[in-house]
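@channel anyone free to eyeball this complex?
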Amino acid sequence: MNAPRPAAPEALTRRSLLKRGLFGGALLALGGSAVLASRDGLSLPLPPEGLRVLGAREYAALQALARRAFPPRPGWPDADTASVAFTADGLLARGDPAVAKEVKELLGLFDNALAGFLFAGRVTPFSRLSPEAQDAAFEDWRTSRLMLLRTGHHALRTLVYSAYYMHPATAAAAGYLAPEGFHDANAVPWKGEGPRPAPLTQKEGSTP
Amino acid sequence: MSGRIFTGDELTEDRVVTCDVCVVGSGAGGGVLAHELVRRGLDVVMLEEGGYRTRRDFDLKEATAYPAMYQELANRATDDLAISILQGRTVGGGTTVNWCASFRTPPEILQRWRDVHGVKGLDEATLAPHWDWLEERLHIRDWPIERANRNNQLLWEGLGKLGYSRGTVKRNVKACAALGACGLGCPTDAKQSMLVTLIPDAVEQGMRLFANVSARKLELEGMRVTAVHADVLDPRTDRPSGRRLTVKAKVTAVCGGAINSPALLLRSGLTARGRVGKRLFLHPVVVSTGRFRERVEAFYGAPLTVYSREFIDRGPGKLGWLLEVPPIHPVLASVTMPGFGAAHQEMMEQLPYANALISITLDGVQPGDEGGTVALRGEREYSRVKVEYPLTDFHWEGFREALKVSARLQFAAGAEQVLSPHSSPVVMRSEQDVGLLDRAPYAPLLCRVASAHQMGGCAMGGSAKTSVVDSTLRYWDADNLFVVDGSVFPTALGVNPMETILGLAHWGSQHVAAAVGGRV
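replying in thread with the prediction:
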C-alpha cells in the first residue's frame, strides 16, 4: 500500500524564504560583500499616482519581470501599457499588510546581486540583466532544487499575471467579453427596510 | 419583526448587542442555520467579515470579483504556495461565488463517518427530508445535457467514447441565463445562493446581519462562551476601522468554513486537545488543459454540469478522484496555465479553444491520509492563518494517473493538444503521448495543484479524544458553542460540498435551537 508520508524536510515555507533573505542581509553585513549586494537595480519613472506599497526598486524589479512576461504582441497591451507593477502595487495595498511586506522582501531578494551570486553565480541585479539572462534567471528559480526559490518564482509569477489580466484589454484579447445587458449598476441593495424587491424574471437560456 | 443588514460604514461607534444566537459566518452553514433559528422564533445576530455585495456589484469582471469576494483576494494558498485555495469571503460565503454544483452526500461517506469516526445519527434517511426541503427552496434541479455548454459537452462525449460512467449535475438556479459568471457573482440573481434566499428570508423575520465585521475572539467563562469580540472593517479598504462589535449571545455558532473556523477557535485558545485545525481536507485538484480546433468558449454557459465518479474508488491505498470541468476566465486561466513569456501568451490567445478538465481528488478516506492543518502564525489575536498540506507520493501517484485519464478523455473528445499542469508542461499531441506524463516531475510547485473545496479542521466524531465537535455539532468542551460548516466533516466527500453543508446545517439547527431553549 502506498500510504501517505510526512512532508519532505526540504519543504520550506514563505517564512523560511524571508529568513533566507534576511540571512542574505546578515551575510552582507558580516562578509564584507556590501559592494555586491548594494549594486543598483533598474531605475524607472514612478507612476504619477504614486505607490502605496512598493518602493522604487521593488517597483522596477517587478516591472522588469512583467516586461519579460508580456513582450509586445499585436492586439495585446504590453507590460508598460498595462501598468503591471502599478496594478500589483494596488493589489498588495488591498491585501494583508504582512503579505505585502513579505512580497517586498521577496522582490528585494530577487533583485539582489548578492543573492543572485549565492544562488546562481551571477553578480548583476535581475533588473539589470539582458532580457535573455532575465528569462534564464527566472527559469532558474522555477526549476531550482530549493523549494524556497520555486515558491518565490510562483509568488512573483502569480502576482504579475493577476495584475496583467486584470487590465480590461487583456480579457478581451483572450477572447472574454463580459455579456452585456445583464448587470445593473443601479440596482438598490435591500437591507431589510421596506418591502423586499421581487425576484428578477427572465427567460432561461443556454448561452448568453 | 424585520431585521436589518448593517455594513461596516454604518458602524461608526463601538457597539454591544445581545441575542439568543450569534452566527459567525454567512455561507452555506451559517445561512441555513440562521434561517432555521429565526424560523423558530429565536433572536439571531450574524457576523460576516466580507462585504455585502449584491447584483449591482456583480459586473461579470474578474478584476472586480476576486479582490472583493474571495479570501486573500483569491490568493489564499498553503504556506508553501504549492496549493492555491479559492474560497469565498462575502455575504453568502461560497454560495455567492461557487459554480452551483449540488450533490447529496455520497452514502458511503456517511457510512464511513459512522463506522470509522463514530458519528451518530447522521445517515442518508435522516438527512433526506432536510435535503428535500433545501432542494425545493433553493430550486436545486438537474441541468440537462442538452443545455450544457461546449466545455461540458466535451467531457460528456469523452466519457461516452471511453465507456466511463457519467452524469449531469444539479444546480441551484432559477431562470438562469447561463452567463458563465457564477464565480464572479450572479448579476441576475438566478443563483439561489444564501445571499438571495435564506439570508433575506431570515432578515425579514428579524435577523440582524453585520457585514464587514471580522470575529476575532470568543470570550469564555468556564465551559461557556460569553461574548464574541469582532473588529469592524472599513468596506473601502477592508482594514479595521477601529470600531469594535461585541455580541453577547446565549449560544454561539461558528460557521466560518474549514480554514477560518478553526482559526477563530485557536485565536480563542480553544484547541480541543490539539484537534482543532487538524484533518483539513482540500480535495486537491489537478487541471488538464485541452486545445480544440473548434471554439469551446469555456467562460460562457453554465459552468459545471457534467461529472464522472468513475475513478472515485481506486481501491485501498489509492487516491481516487471526481471529474468535472470548470469555467476558464482569463485571470484564473493565466495563473493556472503553465509557461511564461511569449509561450504563455500564445496559450492565452487560444483560450477560446481551451477545455479544462479537473480531477478533484478525494482525501481523508485512506489509512494514514490525515490531510493538512490550519494553524496560527504566533498565538496573538491578530496572527495570520497558516495552512499546511503535505503532498506525498500518495498524492502524486493519484495526480499522475488522473492526468493520464484526463488526457485520454480530451483526446477522445477531439483535442488536438493536451497540456499538463506542470510548470514546464508536458505537451501531448495524441493519445500515444500520454505516457510522457510518467516521466514528468511530480513535486510541489513543479506540478500545479489547486483547491476550491475546503473541509475539516473541526472534525465531528464520537469521542472528545479524536474530534472537535460531537454528533450534535457541539464543541466537546463548551456547553453553548457549536460549529456548523464544512469544517466538521471528518473526511472529504468526493463531490462538491455545498449541499452537504446545507443539509448538515438544516439538520443541526435542531441541536443549536435546543441549546438555547427554542423550539426543536
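from a first look: Residues 14-31 of chain A form the longest helix (18 residues).
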